[in-house]
Amino acid sequence: QVQLVESGGGLVQAGGSLRLSCAASGRTSSTYTMGWFRQAPGKEREFVAAVSRSGGTTKYADSVSGRFTISRDNAKNTVYLQMNSLKPEDTAVYYCAAAETHFLELVTASGRLYELWGQGTQVTVSS
């Protein structure tokens, strides 16, 4: 069983950058599609980005496309979310998630397909 631990959240001014990390312990994370989701107060959880097992395929929500970059280092069992040009509306708890799959290039925005979730890290963007 893989356990996910997020880090890197914090308080940043609008226009700033943060890099989130998600470290996977236990089994290797290379058999999992990895994703980032977020949930703002009073709102439903929403998809942010996903990366395939190989790292070669990525998918982004329209709201973050061009500003956020997801990547992974399978040797380190770690997934990253580089967030640039942050906006106040990016304020949320960010969750790392894993979906085990046989498909090397699968990416999905469906939260229901991710069976493992981290505890979350708070990102706050001030205006």
Name the features.
127 residues, globular, seven-stranded mixed β-sheet, mainly beta
Descriptive notes:
The chain has 127 residues and is mainly beta. It contains no helices and eleven strands. The chain has strands at residues 3-7, 10-13, 18-25, 32-39, 46-51, 58-60, 68-73, 78-83, 92-100, 116-117, 121-126. The strands form two sheets. Strands 2, 4, 5, 6, 9, 10 and 11 form a seven-stranded mixed sheet that branches. Strands 1-3-8-7 form a four-stranded antiparallel sheet, with no helix packed on it. A hairpin with a 4-residue loop joins strand 7 (68-73) and strand 8 (78-83). The radius of gyration is 13 Å and the shape is globular.
Q: Can I get a quick summary?
A:
The mean pLDDT is 95. Strands 2, 4, 5, 6, 9, 10 and 11 form a seven-stranded mixed sheet that branches. The chain has strands spanning 3-7, 10-13, 18-25, 32-39, 46-51, 58-60, 68-73, 78-83, 92-100, 116-117, 121-126.
Task: Summarize the helices and strands and which ones pair or pack.
Blueprint (H helix, E strand, L loop, with lengths): L2 E5 L2 E4 L4 E8 L6 E8 L6 E6 L6 E3 L7 E6 L4 E6 L8 E9 L15 E2 L3 E6 L1
Parallel strand pairs: 2-11
Antiparallel strand pairs: 1-3, 3-8, 4-5, 4-9, 5-6, 7-8, 9-10, 9-11
* Series of H and E elements: EEEEEEEEEEE
Low-confidence stretches: none
Shape: globular
Helical amount: under 10%
Strand tally is 11
Termini separation (Å)? 40 Å
Q: Give the biggest sheet.
A: 7 strands, mixed
Q: Determine the strand fraction and express it as a percent band.
A: over 45%
> Helix/strand-derived class?
mainly beta
Task: Supply Rg.
Answer: 13 Å
Could you tell me the mean pLDDT?
Answer: 95
Count of runs of 4 or more consecutive helical residues: 0
